[in-house]
Amino acid sequence: MRGLRRWARWGAVAALAGIILALVFALRGKGWLPWGPEDVWASIQREGVLRVCMDASYPPFEYVDASGQFYGFDVDLAQALAARWGVRAEFVNLSFDGLYDALFVKRCDLILSALPYDRTMTRDVLFTPPYFDVGQVLLVRPEEAAIASLADLAGRRVGVELGAEGHHLLRTWNRYHPQQVEIIPFREREDLAQALGWGEVSAIVCDQVAAFDLVQKGMARRAGPMLTTAPLVGATRLEGARLVAEFQRALEAWQADGTWLILQEKWFGQGEALP
Fold first, then answer.
1. Predicted local distance difference test score (pLDDT) of residue 5
2. Residue 223's closest CA among 167, 150, 272, 173?
């Protein structure tokens, strides 16, 4: 009987120790203890590596060639950040849906992957300042000089990709403006450029990435300012406030000395990288 009581006491002590350890690990994970998660910036400096998660299947932002080499706007941005911070960049290629999970389990320090800002994630991650805008723009033929806005297209045919943001944008425009346009939806984005070139439509609405390509090829001219904004950001863990601050300093410095314009024009030509 005495032995049973002794084992019962040891069992209770072990259970209590388990509860305390679980509580400590939970508090540490939230950064509420002085020996909580290591600051992301400190970890990068200690290891000498900036680990970047991306879904490298979205050119021109990120893609991988047959030899496994990473290329793209986000890739160059990550390498420029690493060089500025005195470390090397290391890339982790994942499906887009797995990026946040990889960040949480510390497979990487920063997500750079044409990532849209998501207000529902602000309690879980820290977002960098926006570094690119993929909002909607209005394109016309290069020789068309009279069109500067949707208001100039009243009664004329405007092409959009079926069901895309541009389609919804024009439907909203027609609902609230007397200068309504005739919406011509196409199933494929490639058909938009063809329709514009052949004069089937007077203008098209598409995102800025598609617009860059058409403008670069001399197939279209951008008319007026951006119609919508869709900022792209980086993301890091909640312990990454210093990293976010250094990211912003880098953007400001590169805008001031022209580096940012060179990087942007390498992949997109003329446009609006920063919103």
1. 52
2. 150
| Most distant CA atoms of the chain, gap in Å | 98
Of residues 260, 244, 231, the one with CA closest to residue 85: 244
Domain covering 136-222 in this structure, CATH number: 3.40.190.10
Alpha-carbon gap, residue 43 to 106, rounded angstroms: 11
In this structure, what token pair is assigned to residue 115?
A: 């990532």
Rounded Cα distance, 231 and 272, in Å: 11
pLDDT confidence bin for 249, thresholds 50/70/90: very high
Cα separation of 106 and 11, whole Å?
35
Q: What pTM was computed for the model?
A: 0.79
pLDDT per position as a tens digit, 167-193 = 999 999 999 999 999 999 999 988 999
Distance CA 84, CA 93 (A): 23
**Strand-pair category, 136-140 with 231-236:** unpaired
Q: Tokens representing 54? A: 């991306």
Q: Could you tell me which CATH number the domain at 40-133+231-268 has?
A: 3.40.190.10
Other CB atoms closer than 10 Å to residue 2's CB: what's the count? 6
pLDDT at residue 165 is higher than 90: yes
**What CA–CA distance (Å, rounded) separates 157 from 134?**
23
Cite the residue boundaries of each domain of the chain with CATH code 3.40.190.10: 40-133+231-268, 136-222
Beta carbons of 274 and 251 less than 8 angstroms apart: yes
